[in-house]
Amino acid sequence: MAIYDILCEVKDVREADTGICEFNGFLEDYLSIIETAEGKEDDYTILSQLFEKDHNLKICANLRLNINKDAIANQIIRYKDSFKLPKGTIKCPYVVYGSFDDHQKAIILTLGDKEEYVMAKALYYVMSEPENEYEGTRNEIIALSVNRESVDILLDTVESFFERNRKAGIVQRELDAKLFLNYDEMYELAQKIASYQLVNLRDILAKCDDKEECINSIIANWFLLKKFSYVQYMMDKNNLNKVHDGNVKKQRQVAKEKCDAIGFVSYSELWKLVKELR
Question: Do 150 and 194 lie in a common domain?
């Protein structure tokens, strides 16, 4: 099945107890829900402009994703605590999708700057894992972050990817180049995000009422950053052909090093920290 058909069948929490997202339906209907919602001002402003671009778009909000522990990349990443996460811990803020004349497309959308772009790409790598419900749709999806200042990039991307049906890989690489000087800058930012969480663990945990949910979120973030660092490097054909002379083993070794550069604290140590805070 193509991505639009798959997403149309996703149940949200309004329809069933087993719903795996907060909302799934037409963008126009979602806008009417968040128009006066506290904390959704930026979401409404940005998504309203998207609606003006195309009145037929649909949106899936807070889509829960699962980690396939048997996926080869996840076995190589070897972050075992991520396999302990409850199903649906990883949430994709928005997936905007549509069906056009002869194709179906979707954009994973996060709100923010460069940091959120890295997270959006990480979510794409989870969503496009083999042997899940979205398998076979990786060429129908791209990832993007947006804020009030970068709405024009989003609208241009919708026109390019949705309306003109340009290839996902080409559009994604163009977006990469607009936001980053090179991929090393991306990897460094991923490490910076992970380090910030590591250094500020006590404050993060202290501010959370639900400690278990907070710990799961922390682990999910580290997993996403590891996932991004490994898969992004492995997907870069320039690395394979020019840096490693076609040697996949060497490429995989460097990808693993970038993944391992994302520091973390174990699940048990996180709970020890919680006890110390009491």
Answer: no
What values do phi and psi take at 9, rounded to 5?
A: -90, -5
The answer on pLDDT for 278 being more than 90 is no
Reported as a single tens digit per residue, the pLDDT across 94-144 is 999 999 989 999 999 999 999 999 999 999 999 999 888 898 999 999 999
CA-nearest of 169, 172, 178, 183 to 243 is 183
Residues 34 and 130 in one domain: yes
Rounded to whole angstroms, the Cα distance separating 3 from 218 reads 29
The predicted pLDDT at position 17 comes to: 78
Task: Report the alpha-carbon distance of residue 59 to residue 158 in Å, rounded.
Answer: 13
**Residue 266 sits in which domain range?**
183-277
> Quick one: 40 and 156 in the same domain?
yes
The whole-angstrom separation of Cα 132 and Cα 76 is 18
DSSP string covering 180-206: -SSHHHHHHHHHHHHHHHHHTHHHHHH
Please tell me whether residues 110 and 62 are part of one structural domain: yes
Are 64 and 192 contained in the same domain?
A: no
Residues 134 and 166 occupy one common structural domain:
yes
- In this prediction, residue 36 carries a pLDDT of 94
pLDDT category at 15 given cuts 50, 70, 90 is confident
What values do phi and psi take at 94, rounded to 5?
Answer: -145, 140
